[in-house]
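Suppose you are handed a protein chain with no further information: no name, no annotation, nothing but its sequence. What can you learn? This example shows the usual starting point.
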Amino acid sequence: MSDVTQISAVGTSLRAHRIKAGLSRTELAHLAKVNQRTVRRIELGQVRRANMSTLRALAAALGITPADLVQAEEVA
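A reasonable first move is to predict its three-dimensional structure. Written in structure tokens, the prediction is:
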């Protein structure tokens, strides 16, 4: 899987987990203590490389592991 494909998959997964949790981008950003723009850019695949500490913070705010963000399985 290319870096671009993987970043896109992480963004898609992040969005699915966020929606499943019933959170807006702003709410997730607040919980994870990251900028809302960062959440948006990751979800849209507009970052070249996501910072691992940011992914950890986002995952923790969603109650999942960072590994859950990189797995391509559909979020129910």
